[in-house]
Specification:
Elements: H1 2-39, H2 42-45, E1 49-60, E2 66-72, H3 73-81, E3 89-101, E4 104-115, E5 118-132, E6 135-144
Length: 152
């Protein structure tokens, strides 16, 4: 009986440890993505982005109508590097909720966005990641943007 308990304990520890390692790798992928984002450095961001990356935003237009906008990953990179260098921006990630199933992960992050040191908006990001060749890459990112009901 003791042998069964030891074997089960080792198996359970191995499963928990593997999950934790994946969570660390996924969080590092997202943190490095934002490091490149804030530095406007496409060379940092591009290896973390799957070649088929699609970005979408759920928000409201000036009339209050909910809309969905879509951007290809390559266009997103161009827009980031073209932001004037005298402008500052920061997306502050407030929390992470990571879910993993094999080589796919979903990460839900609450955030605040600041532009030129002034609060702009808040919302959530939903990242979809794939693990290929032992590397996690973002293949889909959708976010919400709102100015109300934000904790500052």
């Amino acid at each position: 009986m003791k042998q069964v308990i030891v074997i089960l304990s080792l198996f359970l520890y191995g499963s928990i440890n593997a999950q934790t390692q994946n969570e660390i790798e996924i969080k590092n992928t997202i943190e490095t993505f934002f490091e490149g984002f804030h530095k406007q450095d496409s060379l940092i961001m591009k290896p973390l982005m799957h070649k088929s990356l699609i970005l979408q935003t759920v928000g409201k237009d000036r009339g209050g109508v909910v809309e969905l906008s879509t951007t290809k990953g390559s266009d997103f990179l161009k827009s980031i590097v073209s932001i004037p260098k005298e402008s500052t921006f920061q997306e502050k990630i407030l929390s992470y909720n990571i879910q993993i199933d094999g080589n796919m992960a979903n990460v839900w992050t609450n955030y605040e966005f600041w532009f030129n040191s002034k609060f702009s908006h808040c919302g959530v990001n939903s990242f979809q990641l794939i693990k290929q060749n032992n590397t996690w890459q973002i293949f889909y990112l959708v976010d919400t943007r709102r100015r109300e009901n934000c904790k500052q």
